[in-house]
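note to self: dont lose this again. the chain is below, predicted strucutre after it. 323 aa total, dont forget to put it in the shared folder this time
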Amino acid sequence: MSAPFVSADIGGTNARLAWVRPRPDGSIEVIGQRHYLCAAHSSLRAIVADFMGDAAAPDALALAVAGIVDGDAVVSRNVPWPIDLADLRASGIAQVAAVNDFVAVAHAWQCMDDADTLLLTPGVAMPAEPGTSLLLGPGTGLGGALRVTRSGRALVLPCEPQQVSLAPGNLRELAVLAHWMGEGAGHVGVGHAVSGPGLANLYRALCAIDGLAPRWTSSDEVVAAADAGTDAQAGEAVAMFCGMLGSVVGDLAMVTSATRVFVAGGVPSKVRRWLLDGAFAQRMVDKDVMRPMLERIPVRLIENPDVGVIGAASWFLQRNASG
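---
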């Protein structure tokens, strides 16, 4: 396919739709795009209709969705409305296909070079040989995928790290976990802390433990207060978020034998200064005898905001090419 088509990145909070087309080298060019707040629209079909306006329906729509694709349905606890691929085809779009959002990110290889990423583990070089890449992204939830490269071929595998049980790394984090379980939580997954809503959850828990009324409700407000230095619990919540993210990266790198890690998503970009302050990298390698191995793994923050739509488009073209 050489003609332009529509690619979309659908998260739990925001949706990004773009006209894209492939370049001769296989990379994706983003021609034009719009952003939408998911909760402000009744359905994905309504968002697509608004994006298209009076233009004719595209030949194809590639979707990266925060969830698991099951036939023509998408199973997700983050997206605010059901997604039905058959319904989108009924709107006049001939080809509609969807993939997990982090599988899409794993296909966005053009967004993983030094120009589009920030090194979060100073002094750690990228391995010369291809290997296994772990991709993680705290957003409305905590998404993840693996990109395994062998003999010049890449295999992408989805994973759901947000449901892995949260493991505290110090007494203060243990107190936060105890607070949540005291509120009746039978299972506390990593995503309850390491995500956009998780950052606000951490702040509220710290305020409750310290006997204070929370002043902020959203993660954006918590980050702003932390950056301004006007709220001690906000600063602690952001630092705790970064430390926990480091622990999760280290745990999953060991489980998957990853040789490099890429972090994506809006939340890490908002706290990039805090991620560079040291707790993230320290907690990532604090794994007893595995420390020397983890110290050789570079972690890079993907900063290209188009990574989702580029990844969805790249996955779609590869899917069509393979039949």
